[in-house]
Amino acid sequence: MAASAPFWPLPPLMVLLPACSILALTLAGTWSQLSWRALDWVHFSGQVGAQARLPVVVATGAAALVAARLTRPSLVFAQPWQPRLERELPLRHALVITGWCLGAYLVGLIPLTVAVTVRGAGMVNPVAILGSLTGFVALVLLGYLCGVIVRGLLAVPVAIGSVFVITSLPLVADPWTALALQLPFAPSLGMRESTALGFYRLGFFLLLATAITWTVTCFLRAPRRLSPLHSMAIIVVVAAAIPPHLHTFPLMAYSQDGGEVCAERGGVRYCVHEGHTDELAPIIELAAPVFTAYGPSDAIPDEVRDHSLATTDEEVLGGIDDGVLWVRVHPGWDPYQQIPEVAAAWLVPDLFVCGSEGVALMDDEAEPEERRAAVLAGLQAWLASRAFENGDHEDGLFAGADLDEVRTWIHRNEDRLAVCEVEPEELPWWS
């Protein structure tokens, strides 16, 4: 196929196929997020790198194919006795394939960008975004380098495999996060990516892209061999990859920005980040009935707080002692599932206090510890069901139990429940 102006010197099909694939992958990866609750710019900044994991693999394979097909030594203008290619041509190859693939990826992010602009909160993290996009370019250039060095179509799987491993390493060990596109988890409002980590990633990928570009333009000229300067470039890049393994960068930090919005019901204070104001009402509507069903008790928290308001780890870890129930409000969360479960779990002791290793059973072969654990599990499920108007528990130990009767029973047996001493046979409504 002849090359046309937007694609020159590459055949259009060699560019459009990976670009369309990247566009489809990006839209498929972000489409479900368009309807998510609690979208924010912190989450979006992290998604720029996270969603690039598969698109960059496609782009890398395309770049390797371009280099393998269009810079091979068998071409008539690439004989050993003449300069293989002038500098402009390999740079043009890389520019076209990188530009189209990166452009397709950015176009695929437009719907999510619009959704966050309309409904999102917080501040965008430009360093995280620039680091991810610079990494995208550097990894595509790495694929082109694979195509130059590895003869034939074998370069494509080599490039794809190498980049897939590089983008997957943060999921294995935190030190690799400084050398990859994304964090091993999705950040959200109230947190921010570590400044040191963001700038190190950006600097490393700029160094990598520069070293690869220089190596490719020199390597495609006769004679085809590594010079001492090329070896030095490799050493510099490898050396830059070592510090994160000697001193792991902190991944996240508390942003400590934004005010809080609060309300009170039933003696419990509920507070969320100002960016999560719309989430305050469902939190109250779902948590308050659970606390009411449990009845007056010291077990009821004094305050329910949005985790986005936390300022230190110690503040969150000390929540139990301080009477503060911390709730994670994050993009895509479902309060109708999470809030009743979190509220009920706060009130009911953990199953491990029963000595059953977390197992709760009611069959004939169940151990006594497992049967007592079933009481706690049943109570927790029953309390969670109170968050809904038609929350009658139709099966289990608390099936058909009256609200006032259960509340009275909890008040009478609260100390025994705390140490898991209540047998199923003691439940007045169960036989």
Q: What does this molecule look like?
A:
- With 431 residues, the protein is an alpha/beta fold.
- 54% of the residues lie in helices and 6% in strands.
- It is built from 16 helices and 6 strands.
- The strands form 2 sheets. A 4-stranded mixed sheet has the order 3-4-5-6. It has a two-stranded antiparallel ribbon with strand order 1-2.
- Helix 11 links the parallel strand 4 and strand 5 (303-306).
- The longest helix has 25 residues, at 195-219.
- It is elongated and about 90 Å long.
- The relative contact order is 0.09.
- Mean pLDDT is 87; it is low at 79-85.
Short summary:
The chain is α/β, with parallel strands linked by helices and 431 residues long.
Class per helix and strand makeup: alpha/beta
Task: Note the overall shape.
Answer: elongated
Radius of gyration of CA atoms, rounded to a whole number: 29 Å
Task: Provide a count of the helices.
Answer: 16
Report the count of strand segments.
Answer: 6
Helix-strand layout with pairing:
Layout: H1 12-30, H2 41-50, H3 53-70, H4 88-108, H5 110-119, H6 126-149, H7 155-168, E1 191-193, H8 195-219, H9 228-240, H10 243-246, E2 252-254, E3 260-265, E4 268-273, H11 277-294, E5 303-306, H12 313-317, H13 319-322, E6 324-327, H14 335-347, H15 368-385, H16 403-418
Parallel strand pairs: 4-5, 5-6
Antiparallel strand pairs: 1-2, 3-4
